[in-house]
Amino acid sequence: MSAKEELLKTLKELADEEFKDFKWMLPEAIPKNQQENADRMYTVDKIIQTFSHQSVEKVKKVLKKINRNDLLKKLSSINTETQDVFPRRQSKACSPPNTLVEAQLSLQTPTPPQTTSPRATTLPALSKSTSLLQSPLVDKAQTTNTSSKYDNITCKVKIHSGSPAVYQLKPKKENIGPLTRITLGEKDPNKSNKTILLVGETGTGKSTLINALVNYAMGVEWEDDVWFKIVEEEKRSQSESQTSEVIVYQIFGFEDKTLPYSLTIINTPEYGSTAEIEQNAIVRQCLFKLFQSVNGVHEINAVGLVMKASENQLSDRLRYIFNSVISLFGKDIEKNSVALFTHSDGLTPENVLKALEAANIKCAKDEDNEPVHFMFNNRQSIQRTRKNIGALKGAWDLTIDQIVLFTDFLKENSPQKLETTVEESKLQTRLTACIQNQKEIIRFIDLKQTEIQQTMEGLKKHEQEIKKNQEFTVEVDEVYKHKEPIGGGRRELTYVGAVCCQLCKENCHYPGCTVAGRPVDCEVMKDDCCTSCSGRCPVSNHVKVEWKYVSNTKKVKKTLNDMKEKYEKNNAGSESKFSLLETLQQKIEELQKEKDQLLEKSFEHVVQLDQIALKDDLMSTSVHLDFLIEKMKEKEDKEKERKLEEMKSRLDDRTRRNTSSKYGNIISTSDLIKSGFPAVYQLIPRKEKIETLTRMTLGEKDPNKINKTILLVGETGTGKSTLINALVNYAMGVKWEDDVWFKIVEDEKRSQTESQTSDVIVYQIFGYEDKPLPYSLTIIDTPGYGDTTGIEHDVDIMERLFNLFRSEDGVHEINAVGLVLKAGVNRLSDRLRYIFDSVVSLFGKDMEKNIVALITHSNGRTPENALKALEAAKIKFARDEMNQPVHFLFDNCQNEDRTKEAEVLKHADKTSMKGMSQFTDFLVKTAPQRLEKTIKVLNGRIRLTACINNLKERIELISLKQTEMQQIQDGLKKYEREMKNNEEFTIEVDEVYKEKEHIKGGRRKLVFYKGAVCCTVCKENCHHPGCTVVWKPGHCEVMKDGRCTSCTGKCPASDHVKENWKYVTKTRRVKKTLEDVKAKYEKNKEENKKQESFLESLQKEKETLEADKTALLDEAYHHVVKLEQIALNVVSLSTYVHLDFLIEEMEKKNDTEKDQVVLAVRQQYVAIGDQVVTLGDGDEVAVVPPVSGG
């Protein structure tokens, strides 16, 4: 059943009253005066005649309105591209060829000379040989029908033969800076013209749409089997993919074809979030010049927002592009703004229409209060084959039908006259500049009034001195102006600077003067005079410079004569104090009057500015309102204050709507920290704190989405927290034009000694994978340790990282380790080198290719000094093609108040966004470092540390035992006579013993168990400190193949416990008899052994202990060598103390070879007190004993 029959069947299922409602909702198809007599068949015919391919969709909309959703579902299966149901909307049009045979034959038959319509052709009967199906449409056909119709177009070059033949038009081309004018044909001043301004991103099909409009204007038909291109295709690099020119296409000489008028199409470039402020200024200036020039464009019939029909949301950049362009026009342009949907299938694009509404795009509305829109499927230049000809014909018909509707809109809609637009745009700029200057003058007056008030108070205070003609001085804050450099300068066609009046010493246009190269070209100039400065001075008194005037004060002491000279220079020299005070009071009143006048002017300017702009400059307008509201409160002018508050409320609502349409869900669950530009919100993620490890999770993890992990290392004050916030905002898709900023890092008030973060914090950012990044982010922030908290704290932090990498729900791979440092550094501090080395010592050597420098506080230029500092510090980094450390630049000022130095902050944002883009691309391209290898390194380090700790305790025990033995030997020698006579005697010794001592620890949640793993057989601490994760001794890192690698006996795991105590070695002073001593050291020997035998036993015991010590030292030495082979950097302060201990013991053994090996590992650092200092090549350390007295 055809679509037409389905529509009729559907209407027959409507009750009579429902059918009446249905017709009433179709006034454009069924006029009111015909509705009563229109039956269902007539209604279907009128619907198809009126709406063509959109007929089914139109009927479905009406069915939805009358609540017949059951019938709506039945219509959903109809193919609206059926060719025999919906005829093209054209007069006297012939049926299109249905096969390649028909298409060929139609092209081989010349158009009859008596044809009245240029679009009418005669189709021959299908008696030709069907063998034509085996061959394509040939050039012979094109040289007959096509050449006869388009012979007069000589400025064309064939770029593709076939069906259709494709030609590149070669019109006249004129380049005027970044403005290009392309003209086809000659203008007839007696013919009308319609102008379309197109706005859209790269890839939406603007160029193809322009070609389609030009072909339609030329009268090109499907059966002509030809296509013309006017847009030149250029091969650009990715960075240059967006068009940088404003191009004006003028299509003249075809007014007798399909359109009764000529066409002008203005194609605006795809500038926006990736372009500079200067680029935006260039585009706006080009449009201004185009609108102002004598032979330019003086009216606009339509502003077309070009989008793909498949879009379900407007990108930030597209919103920015559109708003940037329409901000040039007055409020009336809204009724001329339409949506042009490309890549359409002919169905109503519900999603993209909702997206337009959600984005608060201001455009014309249809009878259903939806944005006026037209749909296109521009595939006209695609080669036609037997397989695709039906689809291509459907796409052609859809596009032609919609172009007809669009060109009807152009004809029926009143154009926007641009004389008003140009003047209004200039006026907006002029008013904004005037308000800014008036604010600065008012502030200057406030300072002058304060100075005079201080002078008056000083005179009253020294009244007695004045009477006695005694000298005195009064200290006041004297006001002065000076010149202050600003960021700016000439760049291509722009000149960012300030226009200043040298006579008034005022900033007549700053900020915002970005295009004019001379004061005379600035928007604040009118009739060769300035509209901004106090004196309305001539242009000749002004300069365009890279500095501005700034009001300031300085403390000065003034005598009575100084004050008289300044305030009474026009009066007689000797005046009484009353005369001077009266003069000062009069001066204050004059200044107040001047200030009131300025406030009145500023108020009038703001009101005028509010009335003329379609899209207000929210940021600049808001800051002016805040200032004026404050001043009106001081004046107690309630009426003006109320009006200004109303204006501010409207702006705030608009800002909230624009922001909430995109971030409504996030804002509703965040805390507002600061309103304004930007509004700053504190995100409230889920927070889980385990010991000194904190996990902050935003959103829900999708196990099907990939994740990238960044580990950040840096000192306090380098901008790590700000960089983390910037990374999170970038992942969320926050743009400059959104005027919003989110913080995830919590601000904490700390004392100076506690300024560094003490936690390892893991930020997990989920749920934004459809924003700029195709992956979620995990950011690990390591604290700026190595500062004031000492070695124990550093070891604790390292343990936190160990635990994070080892835990089941922790981090199992790292994509990048980022060393955060300021761009201005020219030498890496000892502490920063230490911090970095401490962290990278956790990883294997493969991590080097994942290590990068993240350079903050950057101005966008190559940080030569910082790069040299990295090289000098011998930091191991990934290398770029120039063999420099891979680095990325950031200047994260996005949360700063943009009402001041907006251009500087915008440049900073651009630098950061570029750095973010490059860094996140690096994360995609670089293979992650799987942490299985790292875990081996960590376990090796843990085992080494545990063994050395155990070794130190055992050596200390041996040393104490040796001391005890020495005391016994000394005692025996002392009581040699008593021993010979078998007399009783006692020896006082420091007896060594072990006991259990409670330690801080215990189970924390289901993850951590801080305690000590101890061997109950050897009575030794096998792993303490550092055993924080495992619950059972068998799972501890010191266990290998079921046995302990740490204790003396290498005992089974079953002989070990994990408890909240540890073994400690202590001594106690005891008195021992000879029998006590013998019982301890000769319990397996006979009691009548000689004294020499007993002394020999003691000596042998000492030698055994020394041998044990040597064996343990050798074991530790081999641990160090092995770790150095597998680790990227073996040195960190946690191992430094162990290395120091090993060196000391090796020196005692006089083992110089091993001593040098260990020293080579350690030589980067030397400890001074509880801190470390980095040693460079050739540095030496001298140990100086304290001088007398300290």
TrEMBL record:
Ranges of residues in domain DED: 2-77
Biological processes, Gene Ontology terms: regulation of apoptotic process
UniProt-listed Gene3D superfamilies: 3.10.20.30, Death Domain, Fas, P-loop containing nucleotide triphosphate hydrolases
Species, as recorded: Perca flavescens
Region of interest (Disordered), ranges: 638-657
UniProtKB keywords: Coiled coil, GTP-binding, Nucleotide-binding
InterPro entries attached to this UniProt entry: AAA+_ATPase, Beta-grasp_dom_sf, DAPIN, DEATH-like_dom_sf, DED_dom, G_AIG1, G_SEPTIN_dom, P-loop_NTPase
Coiled-coil residue windows: 550-601, 958-985, 1067-1115
Top-level taxon in the UniProt lineage: Eukaryota
Composition bias, Basic and acidic residues: 638-656
Keyword rRNA-binding carried by entry: no
Protein name: DED domain-containing protein
UniProt keyword annotation of tRNA processing present: no
Membership in a protein family: Belongs to the TRAFAC class TrmE-Era-EngA-EngB-Septin-like GTPase superfamily. Septin GTPase family. Belongs to the TRAFAC class TrmE-Era-EngA-EngB-Septin-like GTPase superfamily. AIG1/Toc34/Toc159-like paraseptin GTPase family. IAN subfamily.
Alphabetized GO MF terms: GTP binding
